[in-house]
Amino acid sequence: MKINIKNSVKIDAALRAVNGRSASFCYTDAYEIRALAVRAEETLAERGVRKKHVRGSTLDASPAGASAKNYKYAANASRVTLTRTPGGWYLTDVAMGSVYPCAPELFALTVPDKAASDIVAHAMSGITVSA
Predict the structure, then answer these.
(1) Residue ranges covered by each domain of the chain
(2) pLDDT class for 89, splitting at 50, 70, 90?
(3) Is pLDDT larger for residue 106 or for residue 65?
(4) Binning pLDDT at 50, 70 and 90, where does residue 122 land?
(5) Structure pTM?
(6) Strands (DSSP E) along the chain, which ranges?
(7) Residues in contact with 64: Cβ distance below 8 Å, sequence separation at least 6, in sequence order
(8) In the sheet that 106-110 helps form, which strands lie side by side, from edge to edge?
(9) How many CB atoms lie within 10 A of CB 61?
């Protein structure tokens, strides 16, 4: 599903279907998914990826675990996968997983070769390597 306002109801329904009664450590509405897409787009832009090379990037995301150490076991947590196409970000997978106490948020971007080359070029701009 394309991540936009028109598909908010469908995205909410997909999240509800996977989450069931779980709400803590879960993405519960389309707004959170849109925020992930915006954050992914901004991260790629900050790293120097050109717009034409963003296509094919994916984002795997899951909320952070409980911050209190008195939780002893894993909790249910939703995990989403977003994929970037020429038309924008799409929600391609929603699954129930688990998250352990004090676990950090999962925000894992995977980029195609051309985007990786852009990131390296951006990182190396203004730097000369001597032999």
Answers:
(1) 5-112
(2) very high
(3) 106
(4) very high
(5) 0.89
(6) 58-62, 75-85, 88-99, 106-110
(7) 25, 99, 103, 104, 105
(8) 88-99, 75-85, 58-62, 106-110
(9) 21
